[in-house]
Write a sequence for this structure.
């Protein structure tokens, strides 16, 4: 998750500028079918929803105040290292909340992982589905469902961190906790395909590129502010948005980690298509509790991720790069530092130029050479993204992760720690 477009604790770290050429005779919102000059990014997306009852729990010894809510299984941890908080105050104690069971306890945590496919309708000014040269601008997600389901995000593969084949994100988690975990410790996803939803995007808030035969689409760019309003429910009763509909249908629950999968749908900021492109984020929708859950706030943990077809951004960044990025970060920071404490880290600066203060394990790697880790399975080469390991964020030396590494599966991407830095990496 790139801390930029919607971040509340830092300023925009870099502006993603792309050219959006328009061919003669085309409308201004139709652009050329390539984004090879664009910067790919992931934005910090704050939780969305309505306040409900959150019951305080008496804090444990030496731990910050905690809150009780209805959501996925997690465990808390802590580490000590000198650093500075978001406002520049020195601090030594840091805390995290990670999805799953404690590594020291062993055992397997299995999360339901519903995949909600979302197709896109690009609307005309009269709110009908737009037609360009005889082709409706309806972009179906269906061709990408099976490749995602068959990918290493959800299927097992061999990794050095596990003595049995496992999923990509679990392999990364095991690499992080390799020095302290029980050998039977796993955190795995149980995928299932749910009802296809459709997002209707109003004209004026999108750009599009067509396929060579004139059909829709090579990709779509959408204003991130409009996109978020169309994705998340506007009220607890809303069943029109993909998230609201999936909640009411019981297809996603407070115990699942959901993926809202889109077809080559990328987001731009500030109402400007040249400030592009966000390919994914992770967050949660929160809704008031009821008598069935003791009136605890309901937190629906989810990711938005776009499939990335080959050739749009370059040779490595494609297929499940965005999805693997967001799933990995969801496991390590499912509540996106929403309590202001858990998931907060000392300020760090990575080789890719990112300056952040959170446990966003993929942000420290994205954009580097060899940032993805090609995996061949089911007749396709997938490109999940390498991740930074927890000891790197703990400023731990030497690292207790697998082989003393700071990154995985490629253990050579991060070989040194960030210097100790103040606010904004000063």
């Amino acid at each position: 998750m790139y801390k930029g477009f919607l971040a509340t604790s830092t300023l925009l770290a870099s502006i993603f500028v792309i050219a959006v050429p328009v061919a003669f005779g085309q409308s201004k919102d139709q652009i050329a079918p390539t984004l090879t000059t664009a910067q790919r990014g992931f934005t910090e997306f704050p939780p969305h929803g309505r306040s409900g009852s959150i019951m305080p729990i008496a804090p444990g010894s030496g731990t910050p105040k905690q809150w009780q809510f209805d959501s996925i299984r997690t465990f808390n941890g802590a580490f000590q290292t000198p650093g500075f908080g978001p406002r520049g105050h020195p601090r030594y104690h840091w805390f995290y909340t990670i999805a799953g069971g404690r590594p020291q306890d062993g055992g397997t945590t299995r999360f339901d992982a519903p995949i909600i496919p979302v197709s896109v309708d690009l609307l005309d000014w009269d709110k009908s589905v737009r037609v360009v040269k005889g082709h409706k601008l309806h972009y179906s997600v269906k061709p990408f469902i099976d490749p995602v389901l068959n990918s290493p995000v959800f299927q097992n593969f061999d990794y050095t961190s596990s003595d049995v084949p496992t999923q990509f994100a679990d392999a990364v988690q095991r690499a992080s906790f390799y020095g302290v975990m029980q050998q039977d410790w796993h955190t795995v996803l149980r995928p299932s395909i749910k009802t296809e939803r459709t997002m209707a995007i109003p004209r004026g808030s999108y750009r599009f590129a067509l396929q060579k035969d004139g059909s829709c689409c090579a990709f779509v760019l959408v204003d991130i502010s409009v996109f978020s309003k169309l994705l998340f429910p506007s009220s607890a009763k809303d069943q029109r948005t993909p998230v609201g509909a999936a909640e009411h249908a019981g297809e996603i629950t407070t115990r699942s980690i959901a993926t809202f999968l889109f077809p080559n749908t990328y987001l731009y900021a500030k109402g400007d298509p040249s400030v592009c492109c966000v390919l994914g984020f992770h967050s949660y929708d929160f809704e008031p509790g009821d008598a069935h859950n003791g009136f605890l706030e309901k937190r629906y943990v989810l990711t938005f991720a776009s499939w990335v077809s080959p050739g749009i951004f370059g040779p490595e960044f494609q297929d499940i790069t965005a999805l693997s990025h967001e799933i990995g970060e969801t496991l390590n920071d499912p509540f996106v530092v929403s309590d202001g404490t858990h998931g907060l880290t000392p300020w760090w600066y990575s080789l890719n130029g990112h300056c952040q203060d959170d446990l966003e394990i993929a942000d420290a790697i994205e954009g580097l050479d060899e940032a993805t880790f090609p995996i061949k399975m089911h007749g396709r080469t997938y490109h999940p993204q390498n991740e930074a390991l927890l000891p790197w964020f703990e400023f731990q030396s030497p690292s207790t992760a697998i082989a003393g590494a700071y990154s995985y599966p490629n253990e050579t991407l991060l070989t040194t720690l960030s210097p100790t830095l103040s606010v904004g990496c000063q």
The longest helix spans residues 321-332. Residues 87 and 423 are 7 Å apart (CA to CA). Residues 48-425 form one domain.
